[in-house]
Each structure stands twice: as structure tokens, then as C-alpha cells.
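Take the subject:
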Amino acid sequence: MEKFIKTSRLVALTVMLAALLLLYVSTIYRLQVIEGEAYYADSIGSSSSTRIVRAARGSILDRNGVLLVSDRVVYNVSISRATLLQQDDPNSIILELVQAARSHGVEYTDTFPITMSAPFSFNAVLSSTQENWLNAYFEYFKLDPDISAADFISWLRDHYEISYTIPAADARRIIGIRWELEMRAIIYTTDYVFAADVGSSFVAWAEERNLPSVSIEISSEREYHTEYASHLLGYLRSMSPEQYENIYSDLDYPYNAQVGQSGVESTYELQLHGVDGKVTTYNDADGSIINEVVEEPVKAGDNVYLTIDIALQGAAERALASGISQINQSREEDDELADAGAVVALDVNTGDVLALASYPTFDLSTFGSDYSSLSTDESRPLYNRATQGTYNPGSTFKMVTALTGLREEVITGSTTVEDKGMYMKYANVGYTPRCWIWPSNHGVLDVVGAIENSCNYFFYWVADQMDIDPIAKTASEFGFGSSTGIEIGDGTGTLATREYKRDVLGEGWYKADTLITAIGQGHNMFTPVQIANYVAAIANGGTVHKLTVLDKIVSSDYSAVLEEHEPEALNTIDDPEGYFSYLQRGMVAVAETGTASSVFSNYPVPVAAKTGTVQSDTAAINTGVFVCYAPADDPEIAVAVVVEHGGSGSALTDIAKQILDEYFSDTASISDFESDNSLIK
């Protein structure tokens, strides 16, 4: 019997069906997978926009893991200009949004520099940004820069097609938002944040209304968990055009990103910032959001641990503020007041900054609203005096002169000089510098006694034997005239040398310059961090550490240590003859029986100290300087205190005491010293 279907035909039919099936599957794959996104958008007549999703900024913590600064989640309301302009009536959307914001008490961004109600006029005071934007707008649209506010409003109503049936005040509100959106199209590349950190009720309203082009974005802002360390932590502000062009544009920062402008926030900006993400939003023809696609994931910033102990930092700031207040309470009504100062506390064995205080200070939690007044305050509260202020060291410099005299073999540990009150060697030319105790005198002193009594005469005599060059060399070995290396930046100060006076002041160097420099007056101007580091080097026997505020950097999830600071020496001062011991003994004597003994003679931890009084030709009251380290026989912490118009270094001893009280309060050391008085005397 003949087969109904031949095998060859069946095979051919099977092959044909398989080919058709393969073509169908490949077409479906191409349409849905390879080109699906494009066809999907076309099929619904949608539009899309890509926005930056800000990364959560890393936290800042102290050396003990105490949280100092973190990011908190906030909800921002944004408007997409591209989507808004696709709507039939964008102005009604804006007006509804603005009216809802006002009814909910939400502040929104409107920097348009014309008054909010008729008769319209340009704002009396314009910020630099407003001026730049206004000029850019006039140039872009070829408008007369001298146009009146009323004519400009009329032009804008026509330009943005705002119906004249809309009241003038509402028209001005619409113009303000259209202005913000258009300026970002002219100058910026990022979407407009209508309102930042809005409350839950407004978020609920916005989500329920689902206005075309309006979206709720999750962002973050800085939250401060301490009132201290403002100068050290630093602050965030929107970057300047110069910063964007020179630094952050190459790092893909959005133009309106906030960046660290000072302190740790600035120094570790790249580590704290994280990596922003990108999300593409798809809208249907009505502007409603139908899908969001993560193009690039967000990576939160890393966390920075500092070397400071926030408890010690707080103690330092409180002690400095209260100390200045007490000094002023003792002044007569017409006396010049102590008005500023700084405190630095260091780990003498590592260069770790344990506390860094500058007075007056400011509150980071209200910095944004306070910035205008802070930036114009004559007391300069934003100025970090601990790292940038420069001061004569006063008698705290005498250890430099003493060490130089010992190294130059002008004196030995047993050399004595008789203090005659007035140094008469140059009386024939009218120069007769005095000891501070004049008309009395200190009698016969060796180098330890000269430091203990801060005898000017002794150091005049020592300096007179060797001139300025070796003194300046020793000072430079301690880091004076150079940066301490602290990451947040510091001033180098001024080191008095014959070259400085010749090249900068255009004057020759005289013997009088050498003598006055030897006791800490004259042209030497040092920062508090330099002075503290100098004292730390005396305490540890000659190692000048690179100062640091960084303990470590850990990953955003705290799972890995990415960077850890290791102590680093800037210089090591060789001391084969043991000369440092004379400096140390002299400083111990200052605390036990000298100018700091009223506070430290019975202190339970042995202290080494030196007071300094900086004479001024322009101020009626001297600046005070005080330095110390403790324990004197096994140093751990060095402290430097400077108070402008503080009077004398001895007036600052209680400030340092309060810092040492806090430092030793949580250790067994203080009770150990109390039970073993032999360590004190």
C-alpha cells in the first residue's frame, strides 16, 4: 500500500517548521530583550530621565568609636524640567505644588531676585550667585541688563505663557520655580530640588497626587551628635564654580553637590563622599512614573575614625571658654578683654591629636542658618586658631635657647650665671633689657633654675655668646617655621632668622634681635599645634612627630579597615649628651616650685610645665601661653594653651589642669600617683 505522506516530505516539513520557530523565537528575543526597552518606551509614548542618586556620606567617629557625625535619611521633592515641559499646562502643576507646600509649612527653593509681591522690584541685596545667574539669564536671552523689575516680570509671564488671569503674586511664584528650572538648563546639568528634608505629611500628599514631573527622592543630610570639635570636623557647603571646574567635574560630582569646605569633611571628602548612583525614570504620556531602572548602584561613603577623644575635646573647649570668662571677670571695666584662644593636646609618643580647640567657636548643627552672621563676625569664630593662628611663644621658647647653649657648649648643666636684673653689656648704645623680676633679681642660677624661674637675664647671657643662627637652627629642628603635617592643614608660622629680617622686612639683624628672640619675643610667630608638638618632643626626648587627626578609615559597612595611620617622625633630634634631661628637670621645677606651682605643686600626677607671657606693642594686655606634659616621669600627653590678651601664662594653668583631669580620670594612673608621692617630688 502506498504511504499517504512520503518520508522526504515529512522531513522537509519538519525542517521548515523548525526554521520558522527559530525565526519566531529570535525575533521575540530581539524585540523583548535586545530592543525591548526602546520598543516599550515607544509603545506607550513614554519619556525618560536619568537622575543622580546621592550616596550616603560616611560617618565620622572619635578614637573610641563614639559617633560624631553621620547622615540621616531625608525626603526631597524634585521637579524634572524635561517631563514638566511635556505637559499641557506646566504652570498649573507648579502652582498646585507651591500652594501645597505653603499650606504644609514647607520651605521651597526660590532664589529669583525679585520681590514676592507687586509693586515688583529687584531685591536690595543680591548674593554673588544671584548676580551671576541674573547676568547669565540676561545674556542668554539677549535682554537689557537695565530692564526694570516690572518689565522683567511682564516679559517672563509671556515667556512662560502664564495667563494674565492668574494673580500677580501667584504668577511671581510660578516664575520663581520656572526660573530655577531654566537656570539649571542654562548653567547646571542636574534636576531641581524643589524642597529638601520635607515632612511625612507633605510626602504623603505628593505621593497621593502623583503630579507629573514631581518625584520624591530619598537623600541624606549631616546630623551632628556632638556640640564640640566644630573647627576640626569642618562643614559642608555647595561647591564654588572654581571648585567644580578644577576638582569635582572630573570626579563626576553633580554641579550642585555639597562638599567638605574645611576640617575633616574637606580633607577626607573623597573617602566620605561615596559613589553616587544613577536611576532612569520612565514616564507615560501623562507624565506618571511607570518604571525606574537602576543604571549605576549607589555606594555609601567610608567611615573616618579620628584620633581625638571627644570627652577630652569637650573638656578642652569648656576649660578654654570658662578660663577666658574667668580672666575677663577679674579685669577692670576699661581693661582690654581676653577674646580668643586655642588648646592643643597631643599623644607625645605618636603625634596623635587628642584635642584641638579654638575659641570662639560655632555650632555645626545650625551652621547653615548661622553662616551669614558667622562669616561677618569680627571675632572670626570660623577661624581655626589652633592650626592657623600665630603667636609669639613667650618664655616657653626658653627651652630652645637652653638646648642650643648646651649643644654649642656655651653652658653645661652646672654653669651658673648671676642675674643682675638689668643686662648692661649694651648700655653704651642705649640697650638695657631687663629680667621680668626687675628691679629685683634671681641671683645665681644654673640652666635648670633659669627655666624654673624663667630668668630673662640668664637667657640674654647665653644667647649673647652665640648669636641667632644656632638658636634658629635648633628651633627649626623642633618644627618651628614648618608645617606639622596635620591633615586638615596648618600655618607654618614665622621663624626669626637674619635671612627673614633681611628678605622680608628689609632690615639688618642686630644683637638686640638675638637677645629678645632668646626669651620668646621678637619675630618668632608659631601656631599652637607647633608649640604643642615642640613640647611633646621635649617630653619624649627629641622625636618630632608628624601630627595626625586620622586614626583609621573603615568601609561603609564597617567590615574592613581600608587605611590605618602609623606614627611618623618628621625629625629626630639627637641627644647623645642627655641635654634634654636639663630641659625636663627645669619644666618639672616650674610645676613643683615655679610659676605653675600654685596649680600643680600638689597635683596627683607629676607634671612638667612652662609659662609664657607675650609682650605686645599694640595691645595693652599681654597674650598668655602655657605648655605642659604629664606624667613627668613617663610622658603620655602634651598640652599647649594660648589666650589672646590672657595676661600671663600662669593665668592659663587651670585650663590645662582641667584637661589633664579629664585625661587621667578614666585611668588607674591618677590613683596610683596619689598613693605614691615619690613620683611627684
Notes: Confidence is low (pLDDT under 50) at residues 673-681.
